[in-house]
Amino acid sequence: MRRPEVLMWVTRTSARGLLVLAVLAAVVAAGPAQAQDFPTKPINVLIPFGAGGASDLILRTFVHLSPEVLGQPMVVQPKPGGAGAIASDLVAQSKPDGYTLLFGHTNSNSILPAIEGRSKGPDDLASVCRVNTSGNLFIAQPSAPFNTFKEMIAWAKANPGKLSVSVATSWSMVDFTWKQMEVLLGIKLRIVTYDGGAEALVGLLGGHVQASLLSLPQTLPQVKAGKLKALAYYHDNRHPDLPDVPTAKEEGYDRVLTVYKAYMAPKGTPRPIIDKLALGVKKMLENKQVIEAIRQLGDEVEYQGPDEFAKYWRTEYDTYKELGKIFKK
Question: Could you report the per-residue pLDDT of 125-139, keeping only the tens digit for each?
């Protein structure tokens, strides 16, 4: 190659290289700048279940603070259906810019993808932060022919297939628990599936089923009002608002599964935006009025940041995947 041609080739190559470097520099610089400006419009938060359920109740205790903390409101949008898969899929397919989030849940984002390969799990969505974990309450109609967890199991054994129980969605944590109890305790249940916790509670209150396992935010007011009777708390320790109600473990059932509620985002959402969202949620959850409001619902704040929750989420998913192999045989 002659010298003028060499010079022209070097010049062209250098120009292309400089252009590529310039583009890369612009992309890298856009991340922090994008996060610094974020958010400039309302943030949509999809709930995978219906209004009035535990996720909806918990979320609404603190999102009213989002304009003050983040500069823009978080708009709550219940999107029930598909056992939580509809909302999860919508978020996974959304633009990864921080303006469409999922208020994820054990049922829709750990169990369902692990057991059935539906909905979205840790391989499909990005971790933002966990808000809390919570135990559920075994409850029954006042007229049910049993008053304790042990009595309920004894009645179920004496009457195979007659004990009717409500579950929020198929293969939810509650559904998983009842199926697990059938295998481990040797009972046969009539499991009635609803489209969310609120509907499952209505089914119980309306007399369509005899018992259920539902969250404290939904059931505690009903128990205190005498509309339902508490049989056992499904957690490691007794609940402070129900000191006389034993845990299921105390009643002889030593298998405890809890529920998390957490923010998730589309894969590819820039880390600076995720960090800004996570910090904003953390600040809202540190508000004393919010802490008390969540406590009044029977729950506690158990915040985890993006990395910590990502590890927890993966462990939950892997655990249910292994358990699912056993209970689907």
Answer: 999 999 998 889 999
